[in-house]
Amino acid sequence: MERKKYPRILFRKRLRELKEDVNEIGQIAIQAHKNAIKAFNNYDKDLLDDVTKARDKIEELSFHLERKCISIIASEQPVAMDLRFIEACIKVGSHLKRIGSLSVNIAEAAKNLKGEEIPARSMEDLNHMANLVQMMLSKGLYSFIDQNMDMARELRHDDDKVDDLFDQSLENVTSSMFQNKDSISYMIYLLFIARFLERIADRAVSLGDRTIFMITCEKPKKLELKK
Amino acid sequence: MERKKYPRILFRKRLRELKEDVNEIGQIAIQAHKNAIKAFNNYDKDLLDDVTKARDKIEELSFHLERKCISIIASEQPVAMDLRFIEACIKVGSHLKRIGSLSVNIAEAAKNLKGEEIPARSMEDLNHMANLVQMMLSKGLYSFIDQNMDMARELRHDDDKVDDLFDQSLENVTSSMFQNKDSISYMIYLLFIARFLERIADRAVSLGDRTIFMITCEKPKKLELKK
Fold this sequence. Notes:
Largest sheet of chain A: none
Strand content of chain A: under 5%
Distance between the termini of chain A: 49 Å
Largest interface: A-B, 31 and 31 residues
Subcellular location (chains A, B): Cytoplasm
Keywords (chains A, B): Cytoplasm, Phosphate transport, Transport
Subunit structure (chains A, B): Homodimer.
Oligomer: homodimer
Protein name (chains A, B): Phosphate-specific transport system accessory protein PhoU
GO cellular component, one term (chains A, B): cytoplasm
Number of helices of chain A: 7
Structural class of chain A: mainly alpha
Low-confidence stretches of chain A: 222-227
Shape of chain A: elongated
């Protein structure tokens, strides 16, 4: 008789549940980022509260996800791709947690920009960045959920675009500060927001890298060092 | 006969090895941060290279640490404190990895400040912050290695000081920019360095929180949300 450690029906069910959990957390993170950008464009205390609540929810859910993953590893002793999938769930959970915190950072920075006059060019730069990042977040999440390597690989190129936009907005914000000294005290928050967006993009890339590692066993380190 | 799943000699040995691994990675991270600050005070390409190499080494070592931890969980099915210790090793590894990257960020930002005139006040603020952060890093690492709850708890208060210094340096840098428009293009890197230091301090706090959770089972989430 063939040694059939897997598939065990219950085990498969537990893996499916993990994927559903990751998807749930991912959707909350994507929404948190959207609301943070809304707050940047039109600050509103309720939006900041929404993003903060989302961050807390993500922390709680990813904490439970991690416990579940560890308990499955201990009780089922999965191997190969199954093991890598469970490990990936832990990592993806912690990336999503960080994306939640960075979204709160954006919404909080937006508070400092409320009512201030922001150069149209900087608004455009940052919204352009935010749109790319939003798309990268979805790609990162769905590349993992659907185990789609092509989508995961695209994220590296997307990230280059975000990096270019980051440099561009740094330059534009700096020259605006130069033209209008009075704007310095709040314009620095535009710099921070650009930086937060760039960090979220990095996390989206990490979601893709983890997906690639899960499927191919290609070490994320090598990928990460490419940049 | 008493059911003696633990202590098994080999199992204990493997746990000791994990602790040694964490300590090794921690020492490299502490040194990377020191070199990054040296580069800030007196930029030198070799220092940037050292920090980058340290970051790469940390990534490699923490990757192997994670594999080891997962394999111990799967093969030994540890419970309670032993399990929490192993999980903590994974988390601590990933915090140290992030500290390595942030150190590279500091050294790279320092490159942009090379040869520029930086106001003495800002140099003082940032060095003050860097010293506190250096001390927090050690505390974070040793609180985990020695399972010292008091040390772990102190980190929250240390972090408040770092946050105050961050606000202070933000204010000082902004007012220097205001006085000397030509400085804006490089002074923004001081803001970024302040932010990187603040992020490293947060990671040091996370090391302490993880230690507390490992010992008391008190959820890190609650602690994290306190700020």
